[in-house]
């Protein structure tokens, strides 16, 4: 992602008090009430429960594997291994896979790139897109593996694809799991040197006359930071962002999904430009409390900064939000 500007608003502290509401309630519960409340606990976050559809440890294992392929900027040999890994996991999870190859014109010449799309068909042809980028930024001065920036979103999206494939019968609209190549600038971030994959997909779907089927986009980027702080990304569509923040709040995850605000240029931008509702879920305070954070685009973006717990939190919120977005777009399923 590129240029940013941060405005922390006055509501940052609000979420911290929310936990206090629960204490007197829990104290007054007898055993029976507690047992009756168990399904409710699922919605407050289900970490560790066998019924939990999302497994942060499994997502973390994907991140570990993706990091083990080494730096994988667009056009590199290593990115081929990452593409094979993504494709194989999607097929194993029961998704249809589309691979979209294209030649990107960059400041250092043409680079072959590939968007990968895993598809779960629902009852309707309209599409909710879940997206991330899987390329890592190209650096010659140091080894950049992008454990958080590139690998965390990819690992979590692979886990979400498997979890939602198991619930395909509940899908009203179709889900596309989109893995973008070429999010990172090849040299220096600009409107021409960045977002190659998302710009290309928008162009392609527009040419095919099917872009209007895409009704909402949820983008994941840098979601594995063990010190998870997700501000509201300010370009994102308000209703969609409100819906997700409200789900997070119901799950008692306000300490992670915060009320601070920042603008981040990312793969949701080309879709927003076409009038499509899109939200970027991004922790852009990677190390410390100032954006972009001291680990961002440095040799320090390594596996030890990423946690299964953070992937679990974001995964649960996104999983539950999908069904809420469906409801907001099309009403209750019949
Ligand atoms: Zn980056």
Topology at a glance:
Layout: E1 4-7, H1 14-17, H2 22-28, H3 31-36, H4 38-43, H5 56-68, H6 77-92, E2 96-106, E3 109-120, E4 127-133, H7 151-165, E5 174-180, H8 196-207, E6 214-221, E7 230-233, H9 238-250, E8 257-264, H10 269-272, E9 277-282, H11 308-330
Parallel strand pairs: 4-5, 4-6, 6-9, 7-8
Antiparallel strand pairs: 1-8, 2-3, 3-5
This protein binds zinc ion.
Oligomer: single chain
CATH topology: Aminopeptidase
Bound molecules: zinc ion
Q: Please indicate the count of domains.
A: 1
Per CATH, the architecture is: 3-Layer(aba) Sandwich
Structural class of the secondary elements?
alpha/beta
Mean pLDDT: 89
Q: Percentage of helical residues?
A: 25-40%
**What's the SSE pattern?**
EHHHHHHEEEHEHEEHEHEH
Question: What is the fourth-level CATH superfamily?
Answer: Zn peptidases
Discrete helix count:
11
Strand order of the largest sheet: 2-3-5-4-6-9
The major β-sheet equals: 6 strands, mixed
Spans where pLDDT lies below 50 across 5 or more residues: 3-43
How far from one another are the termini? Answer: 40 Å
Structure description:
With 334 residues, the chain is of the alpha/beta class. The protein has one domain: 3-Layer(aba) Sandwich (Aminopeptidase). Helices cover 36% and strands 20% of the residues. It contains eleven helices and nine strands. The protein has helices spanning 14-17, 22-28, 31-36, 38-43, 56-68, 77-92, 151-165, 196-207, 238-250, 269-272, 308-330, and strands at 4-7, 96-106, 109-120, 127-133, 174-180, 214-221, 230-233, 257-264, 277-282. The strands form two sheets. Strands 2-3-5-4-6-9 form a six-stranded mixed β-sheet, sandwiched between helices. A three-stranded mixed β-sheet has the order 1-8-7, with helices on one face. Strand 7 (230-233), helix 9 (238-250) and strand 8 form a beta-alpha-beta unit. Helix 5 (56-68) packs across helix 7 (151-165), helix 7 crosses helix 11 (308-330) and helix 9 packs across helix 11. It is globular and about 50 Å long. Residues 3-43 have low confidence and may be disordered. Zinc ion binds next to loops.
């Amino acid at each position: 992602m590129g240029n940013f500007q941060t405005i922390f608003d006055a509501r940052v502290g609000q979420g911290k008090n929310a936990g206090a509401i629960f204490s007197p309630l829990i104290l007054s519960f007898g055993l029976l009430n507690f047992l009756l409340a168990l399904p409710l606990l699922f919605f407050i976050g289900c970490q560790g429960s066998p019924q939990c559809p999302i497994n942060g440890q499994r997502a973390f294992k994907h991140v570990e594997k993706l990091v083990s392929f080494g730096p994988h900027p667009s056009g590199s040999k290593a990115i081929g291994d990452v593409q094979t890994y993504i494709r194989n996991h999607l097929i194993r999870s029961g998704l249809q896979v589309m691979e979209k190859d294209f030649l990107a014109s960059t400041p250092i010449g043409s680079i072959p790139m590939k968007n990968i799309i895993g598809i779960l068909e629902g009852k309707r042809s309209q599409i909710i897109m879940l997206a991330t980028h899987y390329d890592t930024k190209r650096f010659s001065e140091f080894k950049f593996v992008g454990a958080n920036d590139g690998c965390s979103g990819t690992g979590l999206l692979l886990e979400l694809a498997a979890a939602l494939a198991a619930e395909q019968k509940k899908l009203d609209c179709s889900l596309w799991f989109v893995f973008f190549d070429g999010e990172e600038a090849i040299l220096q971030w600009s409107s021409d040197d960045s977002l190659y994959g998302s710009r290309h997909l928008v162009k392609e779907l527009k040419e095919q006359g099917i872009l209007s089927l895409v009704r909402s986009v949820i983008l994941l980027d840098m979601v594995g930071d063990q010190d998870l702080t997700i501000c509201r990304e300010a370009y994102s569509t308000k209703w969609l962002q409100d819906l997700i923040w409200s789900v997070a709040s119901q799950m008692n995850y306000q300490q992670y999904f915060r009320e601070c605000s920042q603008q981040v240029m990312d793969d949701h931008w080309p879709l927003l430009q076409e009038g499509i509702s899109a939200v970027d879920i991004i922790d852009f305070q990677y190390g410390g409390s100032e954006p972009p954070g001291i680990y961002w685009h440095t040799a320090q973006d390594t596996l030890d900064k990423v946690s299964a717990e953070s992937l679990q939190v974001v995964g649960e919120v996104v999983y539950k939000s999908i069904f809420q977005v469906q409801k907001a777009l099309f009403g209750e399923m019949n």
